[in-house]
Amino acid sequence: MKKWFIASLLTLFVLASVFGSNPATAAGGGSGSQGADQDSDTPKNVIYLIGDGMGVTYNTAYRYYKNGGFSEDMADTEFDHHLVGQQKTHPHDEEENITDSAASATAMATGSKTYNNAIAVDHDLNELETALEVAKASDKSTGLVATSEITHATPASFGAHDESRHNHAEIADDYFDERINDQMKVDVLLGGGIEYFDREDRNLIEEFQNEGYDFVSNAQEMQQSQNSQLLGLFSEGGLPKKWDRTEETPSLENMTQTAIDTLSQDEEGFFLMVEGSQIDWAGHANDIAGAMSEMEDFEAAFAAAIDFAEQDGETLVVATADHNTGGFSLGLDGEYNWNAEPLHEMHRTPEFITEEILETEDIEGTVDAYIDWALTSEEIGALEEALLLPTADRSGEVEGIIKDAVDKRTFTGWTTSGHTGEDVNVYAYGPGKDNFQGLTDNIEHGDFLKSFMAQ
Ligand SMILES: [Zn+2]
């Protein structure tokens, strides 16, 4: 329900009370049910999913990819069923009007625009209260899940405060040190970034364990934990991409399901933020294969959240992006085609294949093992030359040749290694979803989330 509508209902209610008539009749509805409507529009639980860098094109490409590209009816993705609108993402920054992840996540977490790099602080470095903090102050359980370091800009903007997104150690400290009503702020933390918790100056893993948290470092341990508070760190930095993972590393869906199972034990409700972090990383790297790997991961997490919400009936699920990355296009150089087939014939990302080539120096064997289509002799020749470069230049050159080969075969275009400023899609399901309809501003998301979590 839109705020103005609630406000006008309240006005009518007050007027009707003053004049002694039935407010439902005065409102013209006659059903007398606006109180119930209001309740049903306020979710008890919120699962807010952010596909980092997931501009509109990623969602369209993923639909093509799932359908093989040439399906007549082009069946919907999990996202498509739940599209409700778009959001504006511009930051409030004197020098840049295209947002970074920090300013955008801060807007969605707190309801305030800020400068690029800011982690839930304003221009004067005042701390901005986040939806996660409001939830904890309302005695709800809280969680953060990401495939990047859990201290990365997006999760940090919900659970920490810092003048710069680059202060990972300080952000990890905030997760432990900043208490709400003497309680730990974030009950479930799942992602990467061990290096920021197990440090020379401080061992936060032990400190969390001393507060009663289970610490887990692989998928099996995570599944076994029955604890209501959980710290799971599965890699030094970001997690491997979905296509490159072994059984040791949980998927985003596994982590999301674990967080939901854990947090939903709380009868007061919960707030969970889930980030598909590396859609953005693939975008920065202009890597369409990596992007589809991470879209698969993110879609499965979204589907798990929707499944829970359908059973539960009191949970709002929102999925959106913080900005677009890479200026990615379906179609290249005048070609009226985007060919997803070569992507289905790849079994690892270019990043992984590059590491293998550098390690084995066996170009054709490695390419044969992971890619079902053949490179041209020119492409093989270029890879051979790249292996003769100084060590520091090899990796970028090899990966670039493989990514170019993929782009040429799929007709994928890129315009930048950075972010672009288009509006992004918003998907929603459950009580409160009407607020996200049409064109919203990212600060409205923060306002809605905070008002839901305050109840
Ligand atoms: Zn981002």
UniProtKB/TrEMBL annotation:
Name of one Pfam family that matches: Alk_phosphatase
Keywords (A to Z) from UniProt: Hydrolase, Magnesium, Metal-binding, Phosphoprotein, Signal, Zinc
Gene3D superfamilies documented for this protein: 1.10.60.40, Alkaline Phosphatase, subunit A
Heme in keyword set: no
Record's signal peptide: 1-26
UniProt key word Lipid metabolism: no
Binding-site positions, Mg(2+): 52, 152, 154, 275
Positions with a binding annotation for Zn(2+): 52, 280, 284, 322-323, 419
Active-site positions on this chain: 101
Cofactor notes: Binds 1 Mg(2+) ion.
Entry's family note: Belongs to the alkaline phosphatase family.
This protein's name: Alkaline phosphatase
Species the sequence originates in: Salinicoccus roseus
